[in-house]
Each structure stands twice: as structure tokens, then as C-alpha cells.
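Next up, sample data:
>
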Amino acid sequence: MSVEDEKLFQTLRALRLSISKEQGVAPYVVFPDTTLIAFATIRPTTERDMLSISGVGATKFARYGEQFMEIISEG
């Protein structure tokens, strides 16, 4: 992972932690690290792009997709 990708990965991890605390679930329930790494390196910007990543299904996209894509587009 590049330095830029690592920085985005850490930002995505912080978002995941925040969401997991709000919902009272473990962070990996939101998305596992492998999925966040894919987000940081592939940088999906559409629903279709995000759904093509392992660990993202329609339900998780509906719950979390927009929040993560917003961070990705800023990063």
C-alpha cells in the first residue's frame, strides 16, 4: 500500500470504529480490514464499484456505503 492508501485506510478504520461503537458491534461486523484495504487501494466511487469488492453486499452498502464513499472521494 502506498503512503496515501495507508492514510485513507486509517481514516476508513476510524469511521468504521465510530459506526461500530454507535451500533454496539465489533468493527469487523461493519467491514473487515481486508475490505477497508480494498477501499483504500481501489477507491470505489459508485455503488457498482463498491459492490464489486469482497465483503460488500447490498445490505452493507445500504447501511454504510454512502458514508464510506464520501470519505473515499475526499481522500
